[in-house]
Amino acid sequence: MTYHPDPARYDRMTYRRCGATGLHLPAVSLGLWHNFGEDTPHETKRAICRTAFDHGITHFDLANNYGPPPGSAETAFGEILRTDLAGYRDELVISSKAGYRMWDGPYGEWGSRKYLISSCDASLKRMGLDYVDIFYSHRFDPDTPLEETMGALDHIVRSGRALYVGISSYNSDRTRQAAKILKQLGTPCVIHQPSYNILNRWVERDGLKGTLADLGIGSIAFTPLAQGMLTKKYLGGIPQGSRATQGKSLREGMITESAIASIRKLNAIAESRGQTLAQMAIAWVLRDGGITTALIGASKPEQVTDCAGAVGNLSFTAEELAQIDAVAQEEDINLWARSSEEV
Ligand SMILES: NC(=O)c1ccc[n+]([C@@H]2O[C@H](COP(=O)([O-])OP(=O)(O)OC[C@H]3O[C@@H](n4cnc5c(N)ncnc54)[C@H](OP(=O)(O)O)[C@@H]3O)[C@@H](O)[C@H]2O)c1
Question: What is the pTM for the complete model shown?
Answer without folding.
Answer: 0.98
